Structure prediction request, 372 residues.
Amino acid sequence: MKERFKKIRMDGTINVNMDSKKGVWTADKRTVINMMRLVCEEYQRDNYTLTLRQLYYQLVSRDVIPNHDKVYKKISSLKDDAVYGGLIDWNIFEDRGRVPSVPYHVDGIEHALERAASWHTLDRQENQNNHIEVWTEKDAISSILKRVTSPFGVTLVVNKGYTSSTAIYGAYKRFSEAINHGQKIKILYFGDHDPSGLDMIRDINDRLMMMFIRGADEDILNDAFGHWKEKAYSVYDVLNLNDRYEKVGSLMEGNDSDEVYELFEQGQKELYLKDKGFFEIIQVGLTMDQINEFNPPPNPAKMTDPRMKGYVAKFGRVSWEVDALKPKVMERIVKSAIISQMNMDMYDAILKIEKEEKKIIRGFSDKINEEE
Prediction:
C-alpha cells in the first residue's frame, strides 16, 4: 500500500562526496527516485519482496548510481523518503530481523479444515537417493530461495555468515540419520563470491567431516564401513588424503599406540565417506561462470579479510555479492541444481498421493455442511 505520511521534495540535486579517487557523485533526485520506483514495481509484479541491498544493486547494474558505500547510505535515506512520501509501496520491503510472532487462530471448523488441507504436505524427499539441503550465508535472499526449496520439500539453511557450532551439530545429526537410511548428502551452497563467502564452503566441509570421522555415533557408517575396510587400503592412502594425517607417518614405525590407531581409523572413515560419495558440498552460486553470464556489479574485495591473499591470487581484487542477481535468476539456478539431484518420478508420485489426501480432508468439510 502506498500510504503517505509526509511530503518530500522531488526536485533538487544529489551530491555525494565519495573519495579522492572517485570524486563527487551528482545526480537528479527525481530521476533516481523514479528509477527506484520502477525497480520496486518490477519486483512487485512478480510477487517478490525486496531488500534495500537488492534495490541498491539493481540501481548499480542499470548505471543509475555508482557502487560505493556512501552512495548506498544515500539510497537508504532516499528509500525511506519515498515510502514515507507515498511514492513506493510499503509492502515491497521486509525486515526479516523484526518479524512479529502472531498467535495461530482459525474462524471455525470449516476454516480449520481448509487450512489443514492447504498445509497438508507429505515428505517430498521420501525415498530419494539424495538428502538435499540448500545453504546460504544471506538471510536477505531467504524469501526468494524458499519459493524454490519449499515446493520440493528441501530444507533451507540460512547461516548469516559463518555458521555456528550448534547449527553444524544439528546438521550432523540430520545427515547421520539420512546416511543411515541409505541416502547421500548433497549441500547446495549459494553465497557470495568473495574471500569469506568461498571459505565458508571449506569451513562447513571441514567441520562436518570432522564430526563424521570423530563422532561417537558409529551407526553413521553402518555395517557397510566394516565391509569396505576389508579392501586393501594401505596406510599410504590415508596419509596422502590430507595433510592432517602427516602425524601418522611420524608415529607409524615401531609404534602400535592408541593414538596412531585412532588417527588411522579416522583417515579410513574419511576415505570411506569420500569414496562412496556420502557427503558433498556443491557450490551452485555465485560462480565465475555466472558472474561472466549475468555481469553483476563488482565490489572491491575486503583487504582486511584474512583470506584475502589467496583469493586475490586466484580471482584478483574484486568480489561479487549474490544479492546482485535478479530473483528470477536466483530461482532458476537453485531450482536447476535441486532437480539435478532428485528422482523426479519419485517426487511426482508423492505429489499425486498428497493431492488425493487433500481431497479427503476437504471432504470432511463438505460433510459438515451437509449435516448443517
About this structure: Residues 13-92 form one domain. Residues 225 and 272 are 7 Å apart (CA to CA).
